[in-house]
């Protein structure tokens, strides 16, 4: 049986994707924020879209610098990811240090990579769209890095726990993928019976 739910917060029904740590820098100011409202928007050129609340320091840094980095955390960084979402860059001078993460130099943008993450997308802002309380940033990927064993060039491999990207399920809940398959899906028990 399906039940009606309030429309405020209903977007969480489509939240089950990767959660990222977005870093931005303008002049000497650096910030990091947790984000899950992110999507691929084009293959050629490679573009990603990211919705960022207008009240955040990261938003201001992205507007001023016109660049950002999408850092992909693994399951072991769940506590740091949660803390980055709870702390405000307006109130904490160095959020990366505060949560125990390490900044590393990016190859093409000024915003830092987060050393502990398993993947990074360096992005240049090519378009913005103002949407009420958020801005939708479209970034062109100018460089990408990933842990070699975690990604096979087409998808996440999802075999080793420390190489699984963290997913946001909505609210304060996170998860990880159990594995990958090619349709039709067959439960692990069905495969064992053959």
Q: What would your notes on this structure say?
A:
With 194 residues, the chain is α+β, with helices and mostly antiparallel strands. The chain has one domain: Roll (Pnp Oxidase, Chain A). Helix content is 15%, strand content 36%. The protein has four helices and eleven strands; from the N terminus they run ββββαβααββββββα. The strands form three sheets. Strands 2-1-5-8-9-4-3 form a seven-stranded antiparallel sheet. A two-stranded antiparallel sheet has the order 6-7. A two-stranded antiparallel ribbon has the order 10-11. A hairpin with an 8-residue loop joins strand 6 and strand 7. The longest helix is centred in the first third of the chain and has 9 residues. It is globular, with a radius of gyration of 18 Å. The two termini are 34 Å apart. The model has no long low-confidence stretch (mean pLDDT 90).
Concise structural overview:
The protein is built from four helices and eleven strands, in the order E-E-E-E-H-E-H-H-E-E-E-E-E-E-H.
Task: List the SSEs and their pairings.
Layout: E1 20-26, E2 29-35, E3 38-42, E4 47-53, H1 57-65, E5 67-72, H2 78-86, H3 95-99, E6 103-104, E7 113-114, E8 119-131, E9 134-146, E10 167-170, E11 173-175, H4 188-193
